[in-house]
Amino acid sequence: MSATALPPPRFADPAVFGRVAVLMGGTSSEREVSLNSGSNVLEALRARGIDAQPVDGIPALVEALAQERFDRVFNILHGGDGENGVVQGLLQGLGVPYTGPGVLGSALTMDKIRTKLLWIAAGLPTARFVRIPAGGDLAAAVRELGLPVFVKPSCEGSSVGVFPIRSEDELAPALEFAAGYEGELLAEQMLTGGEYTVGILGEVALPSIRIVPASGWYDYHAKYIAEDTQYLCPGLQGGEEAQIRALALEGFRAAGCSGWGRVDVMRHADGRFMLMEVNTAPGMTSHSLVPKAAAQLGIGFEELCWRILEQTV
């Protein structure tokens, strides 16, 4: 199948899905975004006649599954154990179908450093970076790469803890954050040729989106709050659009992912596309990007949720 063609939905009867748990909330730094996404998914599934119920966090899910209250799980638990392979391993072990990539792809792509190492080994392009172990010398890593750079945690999402550093004067907030952060960080080359993202739905790469934040970079505010961020979809035309979609799909698969997700891509000033990271439980809020891309192919939000859930049958 081509990168742009979507097959027709596989099912028409909502009863085929049985009882669906919409897993949301949890305890990660992305809890509020997850609750927002989850409520939207829940409403969409119910609008299509699906017996869907909200479940807040993994302990509540374990209790519900022990009582055999659900047949499958729509996982929209952003960050933490929702995306790092923990809930995927739980559900796989219990034989409960779930949306999104499996244990390996989820665990790997939650870790930006390991994902980039895999892409490099596979010969796929990604921005230059330096690993900063817990307690490591952030300033030395920044100097090694050369300004401008981003400093970010290896295992967080939604731009939590991300610092753009264009001059030595902007180092202080990142140093303060690093001093109190227990995980690994990375300093990453700041690319200036444009920011893109490509949604993946099954075997299809959706139209790219070019993200143009008014503030200059795509931080938490630009993602979830601001109304002046521009989303250009498709983000490219002709051969370049085909190229970025093919690269995103290849990067997604190389990282052990299947089902649905989103691949973020940056463009170098010289025109080259660089894989940045994979999101295995993308946002489904009013500002979210996979729904925007699906809409370009005539797939509305309710149908998108249906198609994602179809992957569990």
TrEMBL record:
Any one GO CC term of the record: cytosol
Pathway(s) served: Cell wall biogenesis; peptidoglycan biosynthesis
Cofactor(s) it depends on: Mg(2+); Mn(2+)
Active site positions, chain numbering: 30, 158, 288
CC cofactor note: Binds 2 magnesium or manganese ions per subunit.
Pfam families, per the entry: Dala_Dala_lig_C, Dala_Dala_lig_N
SUPFAM superfamilies: Glutathione synthetase ATP-binding domain-like, PreATP-grasp domain
Keyword Cytoplasm: yes
Residue sites binding Mg(2+) 1 per the record: 264, 277
Subcellular location: Cytoplasm
InterPro entries linked: ATP-grasp, ATP_grasp_subdomain_1, D-Ala_lig_Van_CS, D_ala_D_ala, Dala_Dala_lig_C, Dala_Dala_lig_N, PreATP-grasp_dom_sf
Statement: the UniProt record of this protein carries the keyword Iron-sulfur: no
Recorded catalytic activity of this chain's protein: 2 D-alanine + ATP = D-alanyl-D-alanine + ADP + phosphate + H(+)
Residues reported in the UniProt entry to bind Mg(2+) 2: 277, 279
PROSITE patterns xref list: ATP_GRASP, DALA_DALA_LIGASE_1, DALA_DALA_LIGASE_2
UniProt function note: Cell wall formation.
Name under which the protein is recorded: D-alanine--D-alanine ligase
Lineage: Bacteria, Pseudomonadati, Pseudomonadota, Gammaproteobacteria, Lysobacterales
GN (gene name): ddl
